[in-house]
Amino acid sequence: MKYFLSLILAASGAMAQTYHPAPENLKAREWFQDSKFGLFIHWGVYSVLGKGEWVMNNDQIPVADYEKLPARFNPTEFNAAEWVSMAKDAGMKYITITSKHHDGFGMWGSKQSDWNIVDRTPYHQDVLKMLADECHRQGIKLFFYHSQLDWHNPNYFPLGRTGLTAGRPTGGWWGWLRAWSAGARSVSGRTSRIVLPVWDPGGAEPANLRMRSPLRPPCKVNTRTQLA
Length: 228
Known about the structure:
Blueprint (H helix, E strand, L loop, with lengths): L1 H17 L4 H13 L2 E4 L13 H4 L4 H4 L13 H10 L4 E7 L16 H4 L6 H12 L2 E6 L26 H16 L5 E5 L6 H6 L8 E5 L5
Parallel strand pairs: 1-2, 2-3, 4-5
């Protein structure tokens, strides 16, 4: 495995040396830098507990117990028009929302897994589509923060340093890559912008970076080395 990951690192380094941003990417970078003021929303099934998006890891909640939360997640008062209007009235230029945080729970109707707001909660609605439609109506850009780290998916590998009490097996990395890539493509169809927080949990990052190309451009990849 170490040899395999070393090959990926080497290939990624070669790709980075030959990368030349397309004109639309350069234009998007300029817009993002000039816009400055935006709204970042962390929202997911973890909101039920009121202890932040890292609660599954911090409170050492195993998957079996964490899977009880969606039945209690029913955001009937969600109003996309109010959210977007509030952001615009404050002078914000864009909204970023967590489409999938590290607990792996999808805030849209994913076809890759039923671990999402449409299939697992009594709400049964695609809030990302609702928000995307409203942002389009009000003329404000929408970004999705879509995490690669997944404490719920049994195929996520390498496990890194977080989510170790979730009870995940050491599954097949390629199975997770295929599922994550398909999910990212699915959610990117709801907006023209997607933000990928790329983690480096012991060597997975280069492969994650390569998956940005099929997504709707321009895709902003935020490379960070964290306690993943």
